[in-house]
UniProtKB/TrEMBL annotation:
Keywords: Aspartyl protease, Hydrolase, Protease
An annotated Gene Ontology molecular function: enzyme activator activity
Keyword Iron among UniProt keywords: no
Coiled coil: none
A Pfam family matched in the record: HycI
Similarity-based family: Belongs to the peptidase A31 family.
Listed name of the protein: Hydrogenase maturation protease family protein
GO BP: protein processing
Highest taxon in the source lineage: Bacteria
Lineage: Bacteria, Bacillati, Actinomycetota, Actinomycetes, Mycobacteriales
Listed SUPFAM superfamilies: HybD-like
């Protein structure tokens, strides 16, 4: 007779062997490569941190590739598009940005003789093609930013910091922006709700479209409450907290309104010129 415990263990082993542990797919993977401890060499990981603070839509994954090229290669599995950001040292003017499209990545360095400490972004792509085969993404773009100072312990140089912001804007416009949720197309459908305990509630679509970093500044402007998005919590302001699995948000505005809370639902208007959500406080 087979002991019950042995049968259970065999069943568990069989179930485990049948399981397929695929990485979660994503529409876009952005990887920042480089060494944070060496000045401009860390521009890739620093850029990823800035994107994280901005708030990314669900189809986007961010990865700090550091200096571990093999890890970068395996992170690429399951991604539809990949963007890699790294520093370069070609002798060009500091802050020069190179954009290397996928079509120019066909000829990559051989993997023979490499070890884990000599991996670069191009080796990571070559390794991914070898290791992932047909599962390696074909849509890969690389941004390289020419470094000025890779001294141990240095900060990003001004030229590289400015170039990083340029790359962030390119990523937002061409890669990330199209994946962000769109606000309700009908302005009449834009509504918010004030609660008796002083919270302002925003629907998931509205919050994701205009407050992706979950941080904002609130102020009274005449007979309206203005809510202006910030680029991240490190800038201070108020935090928009997730209040349910659907992704609806709530932000405490009691002090801004001096405890005079207009409880109930209110219409809202997104003012693109001022970059603010405007909410009338008086019933019309």
């Amino acid at each position: 007779m087979i002991p019950t415990s042995a049968t259970s263990n065999d069943t568990a082993r069989t179930a485990s062997s049948d399981a397929v542990l695929d990485p979660p797919g994503c529409a876009l993977l952005i990887v920042g490569c480089g060494n944070l401890l060496r000045g401009d060499d860390g521009v890739g990981p620093v850029l990823v941190r800035h994107l994280f603070d901005r708030g990314m839509p669900d189809p986007v994954r961010l990865a700090d590739g550091g200096t571990a090229g093999m890890d970068v290669a395996f992170k690429m599995r399951g991604a539809e598009r990949v963007v890699i950001v790294d520093a370069s040292s070609t002798g060009a003017a500091p802050g020069t940005v190179y954009r290397v499209p996928g079509a120019e990545l066909a000829q990559l360095p051989p993997l023979q003789g490499l070890h884990s400490h000599s991996f670069r972004w191009d080796h990571a792509i070559a390794f991914a093609r070898w290791a992932l085969a047909d599962e390696c993404p074909s849509d890969i773009t690389v941004f390289l930013i020419e470094a000025a100072d890779m001294t141990l312990g240095a900060d990003l140089s001004p030229a590289v910091a400015a170039a990083m912001e340029q790359v962030i804007e390119i990523l937002e416009t061409e890669f990330i922006g199209p994946l962000r949720p769109k606000p309700p197309s009908d302005p009449d459908e834009l509504t918010v709700q004030f609660t008796a305990d002083g919270y302002l509630r925003l629907g998931a679509a509205l919050a994701a479209a205009h407050f992706p970093a979950d941080a904002a500044v609130a102020r009274k402007q005449d007979d309206e409450l203005w809510l202006l998005p910030l680029r991240g919590p490190r800038n201070g302001g108020l935090l928009l907290k997730q209040r349910n699995p659907a992704g609806d948000r709530a932000v405490l505005v009691r002090e801004v309104l001096d405890d005079e809370i207009p409880v109930g639902e209110r219409p809202a208007v997104w003012d693109a010129d001022h970059g603010a959500l405007r909410i009338p406080l008086e019933q019309k």
